[in-house]
Amino acid sequence: MKVPAEARVDLGAIADNIRLLRERAAGAEVMAMVKAEAYGHGLAEAARAALAGGATWLGVAKLGEALRLRDAGIAVRTLACVGVPGEPYEEAVARDVDLMVGAMWTLREVAQAAERAGRPARIHLKADTGMSRGGARGGDDWEELVDAALTAEALGHVRVVGVMSHFACADEPGHPSIAAQIGAFTDMTEYAEKAGARFEVRHLANSAATLTLPEARFDLVRPGIAIYGLTPVPRLGDFGLRPAMTLVADAALVKRVPAGSGVSYGHTYTTARDTTLAVVPVGYGDGIPRHGSNLLEVLAGGRRRTIAGRVCMDQFVIDLGDDPLSAGDEIVLFGPGDRGEPTAQEWADALGTISYEIVTRIGSRVPRAYPGGAL
Ligand SMILES: *Cc1c(COP(=O)(O)O)cnc(C)c1O
């Protein structure tokens, strides 16, 4: 079916990016982070591409995402990280989803769910090594969690598979918190091992750390953004990664207007001369940032054009000057950049945000297409 706009995802690029990350991981396993619809690229499709490229684990934020991977027939080791009390942990255990445990309540609920399910829950202990977000802080909190987890393991309720933490500033090479977090992770892991933990995997590295910090790779790395071909550290370049997503829309209407025509809500753009306008059928309801009004560029008829006036819910306007363009002609909003279109990184830079937000926010009204086929 013909659609006004689509996000084309190059699954071959995802597989290639995983291969590059595996090389950089130098023997550590790769857990492909596919949370938030694989950063907007399509959960199951991107997950299969990552596995084809050599990832051996999948990681998501919410339990519901892990269960959807299972529904899609993907049985590989999958870790769910963020939960609240009362979630269906029994189903998680029954369907072989690994769970991150960073608080006593989680350990209690997961152990009880495992008893009901009649099999041990696979858990990864989460250490807060300096991000001050999830996980148990070093000292009493960590010791209490580790000791309780090992007791639950001895009772057969859990299997303590992993120990993990997360960097706050890995995208800022040389930031003093990086060495401090690696040190804290090493110490907290050592405490647990001395107490009797037998971890299969110790893991800390996100994309930035996988690419820039060999000492942070441990047994497994957890790249996210780099899988999708976007750099985690823009000032260090693209690391040879290939952006997987190209966002396109067809011109819905092309028309001549006279000089002095106010364009879109608020008339924040006025045509300087007689000109041709094109209506592009995506808006903030599709995830195009309204802050991109009069700011973001797109590629239309082979030339960069800035969004003219405000981004609306379902559409925006561009000023084509005298360029010939017809309704139905394809406009490229962002992509790998090889046809002259902006990249998601360029959009992020213009907006003062990160590429993660650009690709993740593209909404469900924009269908994902996989022109190269599934992997
Ligand atoms: C999202 C996430 C990652 C991946 O981070 P990137 O910066 O996208 O590589 C790694 N670990 C955890 C726990 C995450 O939530």
UniProtKB/TrEMBL annotation:
<dbReference type="Pfam" id="PF00842">
    <property type="entry name" value="Ala_racemase_C"/>
</dbReference>
<comment type="similarity">
    <text>Belongs to the alanine racemase family.</text>
</comment>
<feature type="modified residue" description="N6-(pyridoxal phosphate)lysine">
    <location>
        <position position="35"/>
    </location>
</feature>
<dbReference type="InterPro" id="IPR009006">
    <property type="entry name" value="Ala_racemase/Decarboxylase_C"/>
</dbReference>
<protein>
    <recommendedName>
        <fullName>Alanine racemase</fullName>
        <ecNumber>5.1.1.1</ecNumber>
    </recommendedName>
</protein>
<feature type="binding site">
    <location>
        <position position="313"/>
    </location>
    <ligand>
        <name>substrate</name>
    </ligand>
</feature>
<dbReference type="Pfam" id="PF01168">
    <property type="entry name" value="Ala_racemase_N"/>
</dbReference>
<keyword id="KW-0663">Pyridoxal phosphate</keyword>
<dbReference type="GO" id="GO:0008784">
    <property type="term" value="F:alanine racemase activity"/>
</dbReference>
<keyword id="KW-0413">Isomerase</keyword>
<dbReference type="GO" id="GO:0030170">
    <property type="term" value="F:pyridoxal phosphate binding"/>
</dbReference>
<feature type="binding site">
    <location>
        <position position="133"/>
    </location>
    <ligand>
        <name>substrate</name>
    </ligand>
</feature>
<comment type="pathway">
    <text>Amino-acid biosynthesis; D-alanine biosynthesis; D-alanine from L-alanine: step 1/1.</text>
</comment>
<comment type="function">
    <text>Catalyzes the interconversion of L-alanine and D-alanine. May also act on other amino acids.</text>
</comment>
<feature type="active site" description="Proton acceptor; specific for L-alanine">
    <location>
        <position position="265"/>
    </location>
</feature>
<dbReference type="InterPro" id="IPR029066">
    <property type="entry name" value="PLP-binding_barrel"/>
</dbReference>
<dbReference type="GO" id="GO:0030632">
    <property type="term" value="P:D-alanine biosynthetic process"/>
</dbReference>
<dbReference type="InterPro" id="IPR000821">
    <property type="entry name" value="Ala_racemase"/>
</dbReference>
<dbReference type="GO" id="GO:0005829">
    <property type="term" value="C:cytosol"/>
</dbReference>
<dbReference type="GO" id="GO:0009252">
    <property type="term" value="P:peptidoglycan biosynthetic process"/>
</dbReference>
<dbReference type="InterPro" id="IPR011079">
    <property type="entry name" value="Ala_racemase_C"/>
</dbReference>
<dbReference type="InterPro" id="IPR001608">
    <property type="entry name" value="Ala_racemase_N"/>
</dbReference>
<feature type="active site" description="Proton acceptor; specific for D-alanine">
    <location>
        <position position="35"/>
    </location>
</feature>
<feature type="domain" description="Alanine racemase C-terminal">
    <location>
        <begin position="244"/>
        <end position="371"/>
    </location>
</feature>
